[in-house]
Amino acid sequence: MDKTEYEAMLKAAFASEFSFFLKAAGFHWNVEGNSFPQYHELFGKIYGEVYASIDTFAEQLRALRIYAPAAFEVFDEISAVECQEGVPGAMQMTQELLADSDLMCEIFRAAYSAAEQMGDYGLANFLADRQDAHKKHSWMLRSTLK
Questions:
Q1: Which of 24, 63, 93, 100 lies 20 to 30 angstroms, CA to CA, from 48?
Q2: Does CATH number 1.20.1260.10 belong to domain 3-144?
């Protein structure tokens, strides 16, 4: 993998993580129904954990002299996580977040491998931690759907 491909992969991973955060936050704000308190709390914990990682991720990119994407148009263009413009029901919200969290696990797995190949071991450790965080989010979402 050359440096240009590596940078594009990392920017797409960042944009995808930010888009995941935004979707989880929107679901937290807008969920309704009989189980509102449980979904509201679950989505809040997920978006809060992801949000706490965004600044560190941007700083990791900047340490590599990569500019972090910072425009919604760019996020929409390079993110693997699709925007949800509507307000689906709580179960669909959970299903979407689960699919997106599983996708984030794969994105971070690939980015981790690339960072190791490039010798960016600190970034690789960060990416491994993000993958683990999403595995936990997926577990919680999957368990909620049972």
A1: 63
A2: yes
